[in-house]
Amino acid sequence: MNMSLMPALPTPTWTIQRLRRHFGMIPAERILLDPPPGTATEKDAYRANEIEGRLCELVDGVLVEKTMGEEESGLEMWLGYILFKYLVKHNLGKLLGPDGFLRLMPGLLRAPDLSFITWARYPRNPPPYPRVAPDLAVEVISPGNTRQEIARKRREYFACGGRLVWEIDPRKRTVTVYTSPKKYKVLGVKDTLNGGEVLPGFKLRVAKQFSPPGPPLGR
């Protein structure tokens, strides 16, 4: 590969605006500057996630904080509950939540909002950050996410061995199903989401995904 064509990686001298452009114009407050850009390691990510209680992905030597609002968190938990019910009957693999960090490759830690990994691929006695890509990655789109950021994550999941990506948009009330970085189908509330070859037999009306239990009548 022509090294001159490779994208530049962050260094401690980069401005916050350049960092924002590099990471898809995400909000500046999500980009941690300590440790300095380009120098962060998995140990730094572990400290941020496990000791400081901040959910930070490690990308290109930079800690990038995850974002999720109240509505998005509720939808993620609701889908997680539905998937767990399916997996109780079909013990096919492991389901992880938004703090389930995975080492997609050395120096790249990602934590989809939900991850499913088949038992055949999930490592035995895994380290804190297992070296595996999710068979299914679910991202619930928050206002703090950008189109470029989500597209990069999607490319990484597939490049590292992922097979299926669901992108849930609470504002549009859609689920976009990717079976490759560019092959996708947009489902609306009248459609049914299925698990394909990753979750055989799994079906969910999209309308139900956007209708988690609410307060009782009269409250």
User: What's the SSE pattern?
Assistant: HHEEHEEEEEHEEEEEH
Number of domains: 2
Relevant CATH superfamily of the largest domain = tt1808, chain A
How are the strands ordered across the major sheet? 3-6-7-8-9-10
General form: globular
Annotated CATH topology of the largest domain: tt1808, chain A
User: What is the structural class?
Assistant: alpha+beta
Please, what is the average pLDDT?
Answer: 94
What's the helical proportion of residues?
10-25%
Counted beta strands = 12
Q: What is the rounded Rg?
A: 18 Å
How many H/I helical runs?
A: 5
Query: What CATH architecture label of the largest domain applies?
Result: Alpha-Beta Complex
Largest sheet: 6 strands, mixed
Distance between the termini: 63 Å
| CATH first level of the largest domain | Alpha Beta
**Beta-strand content estimate:** 25-35%
Which runs of at least 5 residues are low in confidence (pLDDT < 50)? 1-5
Please explain how this structure is put together.
The chain has 2 domains: 3-65, no CATH class; 70-209, tt1808, chain A, CATH 3.90.1570. The radius of gyration is 18 Å and the shape is globular. It has helices at 16-22, 42-51, 70-89, 147-159, 206-209; strands spanning 56-59, 62-65, 93-96, 102-105, 108-110, 114-118, 136-140, 164-169, 174-178, 184-187, 192-195, 199-205. By secondary structure, the chain is an alpha+beta fold. Mean pLDDT is 94; it is low at 1-5.
